[in-house]
Design goal:
Helix content: 25-40%
CATH class of the domain at 44-51 and 66-209: Alpha Beta
Strand content: 15-25%
Distance between the termini: 51 Å
Number of strands: 29
Number of helices: 16
Radius of gyration: 24 Å
CATH architecture of the domain at 44-51 and 66-209: 3-Layer(aba) Sandwich
């Protein structure tokens, strides 16, 4: 252990110290002192140009037969930005809403708008008409860019706005040689509005700056770079001896989410990766096809994507050997799921990992992977460089190591505010730009442990019960593919525990057997009192979190439901 600590400190001193590739300095950001990288891009346009200069001829964005190189992307962005200015009068500070499925035009539209200082309002492609209406009225865009299917869902409100339909106006995103008039863009100028999931009330728009998005990219790459150097040093391998092949990313996370645009596209473009999109609903069979045909190397499987792919009949006949990195987002990766991934993707077993963050934090706050994940499988990892973590009680007082409370985070990359919502901003962004995450957790020996969303906690006869603990136990049962645990009202006890399960293809629904399975590791008061079997996958947000509010409805409760 001493050797590991010594190697880690030496590598960090070299990479972060004066003259290092990731030299850090203290600077004032929005009135507060923060650690930032000295050598960094100052806006999205600078970052795109750097990517193009490095990887010009490489393929960048792929969807079906459309294959766009880095240079072609840059050219298309310039021409599209010119049309935004000349045809629609888009200038710095104006909003451009994007309502579309993952596609190259989504990415082109984002870069084009931010290049001229406009703000992209990333509308959730799964929303209903009322939800779309709320976001459009809130952000008041000068232009709405979308695909035919989602624009049709937006309803008559669109008649009040200029619209570019990607499916009918593909030439709008082509390269024609024109360039926009560029204005100076500051690091802390706004660039993107990402909407919260909206599982409790109307969605809020987290306003992210150019600094936020670039910080996400730099922080994530730096974190992986140092961990790789440490691992190679322990194995006595010279980094320069390794091949520098292009990573191929399967981007199944929606672009309107933090795991989509910042993590799936921006961060991977900085590494010169090829990014593969797919159209239509999530299809495990098609994902397996793409992994084989495109030789996918990296995939972030949010929510139930991983289990559905691993359980699919085509898995045994598809070549998935190219996939050397599998990560997770949206919810903690249970020990059982870690084992399943290792069994199905053995070549990626050493690189299984996950990160913790949110739209509001715009960054990977903590990360864990490799041997550390094996040794501490219930942890979300240590804080990444540039992030401070505090656990606070209900009175906003910091708690000691091992004490449980609400997680608070401080960094230079947190959101500027919630768009047009000062009350919610004040409740979430506290003094000193400490961001309240809304999650319950604790710090132990420098590692973060997340127990549950505060609003998910069940209180049964005065006992606090965290659903995630029960969910992880049930997920490890061979007959259960996914599960959601929630509280239901009870006249005497306050609440009781209910489990909603979706079975594996050959699974058998047996509340008695499942209860016995839980009793092996859980206290009696945590065992579900009510069971429900569902055939369809559980409803989830774009980040992969189960929408528990959508599971209750007006169903009549019985001892168990099938």
């Amino acid at each position: 252990m001493a050797d590991v600590d010594k190697i880690t400190k030496n590598i960090q001193a070299g990479t972060r110290g004066p003259g290092g590739q990731w030299e850090i300095v203290n600077e004032e950001v929005l009135g507060e002192d923060f650690i930032v990288f000295k050598n960094r891009h100052r806006n999205i346009n600078e970052m795109l140009k750097t990517n193009t200069s490095k990887w010009a001829e490489r393929e960048c964005l792929v969807l079906g037969n459309s294959r766009i190189s880095y240079q072609e992307l840059q050219d298309r962005v310039e021409s599209t930005a010119y049309r935004l200015q000349t045809m629609y009068g888009i200038n710095a500070g104006d909003r451009v809403a994007i309502l579309a499925a993952n596609c190259p035009e989504w990415v082109i539209g984002f870069f084009a708008a931010t290049q001229i200082g406009a703000i992209v309002s990333a509308l959730n492609g799964w929303w209903t008409e009322n939800e779309i209406k709320h976001a459009i009225e809130l952000t008041d865009p000068l232009l709405i860019v979308g695909d035919t299917r989602r624009l049709a869902r937006a309803g008559p409100l669109l008649e009040q706005f200029p619209v570019v339909d990607i499916d009918k106006s593909s030439s709008f995103f082509e390269s024609t040689g024109e360039s926009p008039v560029h204005s100076e863009i500051d690091e802390d100028d706004p660039a993107l509005i990402l909407f919260t999931s909206g599982t409790t009330g109307k969605s809020k728009g987290a306003l992210l700056s150019h600094r936020s998005l670039i910080g996400f990219v730099d922080g994530t790459i730096h974190n992986g770079y140092e961990k790789k150097l440490i691992a190679l040093k322990l194995l006595d391998i010279d980094p320069s001896s390794l091949p520098s092949n292009q990573d191929v990313i399967l981007a199944t996370s929606p672009l309107f989410h933090i795991s989509g645009l910042p993590a799936g596209v921006l961060m991977n473009m900085a590494n010169g990766a090829k990014i593969i999109f797919r159209s239509g609903r999530f299809d495990p069979s098609d994902v397996l096809r793409l992994i084989e045909e495109e030789s996918i190397t990296n995939w972030t499987a949010i929510g139930d994507m991983g289990p559905r792919v691993m359980a699919h009949p085509d898995f045994a006949t598809r070549d998935t050997s190219s996939l050397t990195r599998v990560s997770s987002g949206g919810a903690h990766l249970s020990e059982n799921m870690q084992q399943l991934i290792a069994e199905h993707f053995p070549q990626a077993a050493g690189a299984i990992g996950q990160g913790y963050g949110s739209s509001e934090s715009c960054g990977v706050i903590t990360s864990i992977g490799g041997q550390d994940f094996k040794d501490y499988p219930t942890s979300a990892g240590r804080a990444c460089l540039g992030y401070e973590i505090e656990i606070r009680d209900s009175e906003n007082n910091p708690l000691s190591d091992g004490e449980e409370g609400e997680i608070h985070v401080k960094s230079a990359y947190s959101m500027l505010k919630y768009w047009e919502n000062p009350q919610a901003t004040a409740e979430t962004l506290k003094s000193g730009r400490w961001l309240a995450m809304g999650d319950i957790g604790k710090m132990v020996d420098g590692r973060l442990y997340i127990n549950s969303r505060a609003r998910d906690m069940i209180i049964k006869s005065g006992e606090n019960i965290y659903p995630v603990e029960i969910e992880h136990r049930l997920e490890s049962h061979p007959d259960i593919q996914e599960v959601a645990v929630l509280g239901v009202d009870h006249a005497q006890k306050g609440q009781e525990v209910k489990a909603i399960v979706v079975l594996t293809p050959n699974g058998h629904f047996s509340p008695e057997i499942f209860s016995e399975w839980c009793e092996e590791t859980l206290a009696t008061y945590k065992i579900p009192n009510h069971w429900e079997h569902r055939v369809d996958p559980l409803p989830r947000t774009a980040s992969g979190k189960v929408i528990k509010g959508g599971l209750t409805g007006d169903r009549e409760l019985s001892d168990y439901e099938d």
